[in-house]
Amino acid sequence: MGSLVTGWWRGRWGKALAGIVLTGAALCLGVVLWIKLEPVVRGCKSIPTAGKVTKVIFHSGRYCLLSDLNWDKAGAPIIISKSNITLDLNGFTIRGNKQKLNQVGILLSDGVSGVSIENGNIEFVQVGIRAKEVQQFRVSKVNFHSISWLGLHLNGSDNSVINSNFTDIGVRDDGSDGDAYAVGIMAAGDNFLIEKNTFSDIARQPVPQAQSGEGVSIIVSENSSNFKILNNTFKSVSSSSTENLGIWVRGKGILIASNKFISLGRPIGGKLDAANRVLGNEFKSPDSYKTNNGGSNKHAAVSVNMTDSSLLIIKNNIFSGYYCPVQLFSEVPKRLELDAENNRADWPAGGRACMSGVWHSDVINWPEPPK
Q1: Is the pLDDT at 6 greater than 80, yes or no?
Q2: CA distances from 272 to 159, 252, 268, 353, 358 (A)
Q3: What sign does the CA torsion over 93, 94, 96, 101 have?
Q4: What whole-number distance in Å separates Cα of residue 264 and Cα of residue 228?
Q5: How does pLDDT run across 159-206, given as a tens digit for each residue?
């Protein structure tokens, strides 16, 4: 999974960048509408939603939608190019066209800081929000629905995503070559908070099965650090998303705590560096696991590549129905250790604590399954 996602991250995004980074092209074509500073109620400046031109916000302040914004062109209907801006969607929807490619709901210019987007809906686009190299960016109470590729693509530092919903991500082929991945949040950087969000039915794009791809609720990309992923709910309603990942993480100082994983085949995976903790989460496997030949499905709730680390702290978690609650492995022979306390596991018939990984492992301190 690590090399596959890393390769996809470098290759696919590089190809798509030209179609998604649209500020310069929009300016050259003269289709940009500079938003006038028109005060409305509660000191909020309105964003015009009529017409088919990109709206660029280039003055600090608070901006609001006053109606739904329907977007039928490639590119982004709203570009935020200034720091210290709050965009209040005001309960309304930014809606793309299911048949169009290279649509982004909201685009942030590189390097902005202190931007907040809140209280509304984004649907039927390829990427919900794209924010590269931003600081102190906050997404709150935004519903990402029916997004074909990435709900939120976010790089930078000191950013947060809270109280938002990601539903039906990967619902259509986005027309790109190379893979069929779909992701709720794709994040990279330092000091992130992802808290009190719901991820439901994140599935690979419906392209030929020979094409690589899967659905992932959250990807924390390599070289990231100090992520807090807290009090989120990850669930699968449709059978097509039960085999996909909840969280795939590569980094250090990652805290995954007090989350609920409901009917996901693979809740947590990745390749960890130092100082990572999995604390107080609840893992409930798909019902199909419990009746599959006495627990023959060998997916683990937590499956971690520890080539670059020797210790994983995993405490106070509850596992229900997984053949392997925890699986650790390394690409080189080395000793792997768990600091495991107060975990509870309800194994299906034939289940076991599987510590032997894909290559090599020598793991200690995990209880045997109940007799």
Answers
A1: no
A2: 21, 6, 11, 20, 16
A3: negative
A4: 21
A5: 999 999 999 998 777 666 667 889 999 999 999 999 999 999 998 887
Report the distance separating Cα 322 and Cα 302, nearest Å: 10
Answer whether 225's CB lies under 8 Å from 259's CB. no
Residues sharing a CB contact under 8 Å with residue 314, sequence separation 6 or more, in sequence order: 277, 278, 279, 302, 326, 338, 339, 340, 343
- Give the pLDDT score at 239: 61
Distance between terminal CA atoms of the chain? 34
**Contacts within 8 Å (CB) and 24+ apart, 18-22:** 19/74, 19/101, 19/102, 20/102, 20/104, 20/107, 20/126, 20/127, 20/130, 21/107, 22/54, 22/74, 22/75, 22/76, 22/79, 22/102, 22/104, 22/107
Write out pLDDT tens, residues 241-263: 666 899 999 999 999 999 999 98
Residues in contact with 241: Cβ distance below 8 Å, sequence separation at least 6, in sequence order:
201, 202, 203, 215, 264
Check residue 288 and give its pLDDT: 62
Q: Tell me the per-residue pLDDT of 87-119, one tens digit each, with 9 for 90 and over.
A: 999 999 999 998 788 899 999 999 999 999 999
Structure token pair of residue 72:
């039928």
CA distance 256 to 285: 18
What is the percent of the chain with per-residue pLDDT over 70, rounded to a whole number?
A: 75
Q: Residues with Cβ < 8 Å from 305, sequence gap 6 or more? A: 2, 270, 271, 272, 329, 330, 331
Task: List, in order, residues 6 or more apart from 326 with CB less than 8 Å away.
Answer: 300, 301, 302, 303, 304, 314, 338, 340, 353, 355, 366
Q: C-alpha 173: how far from its chain's center?
A: 18
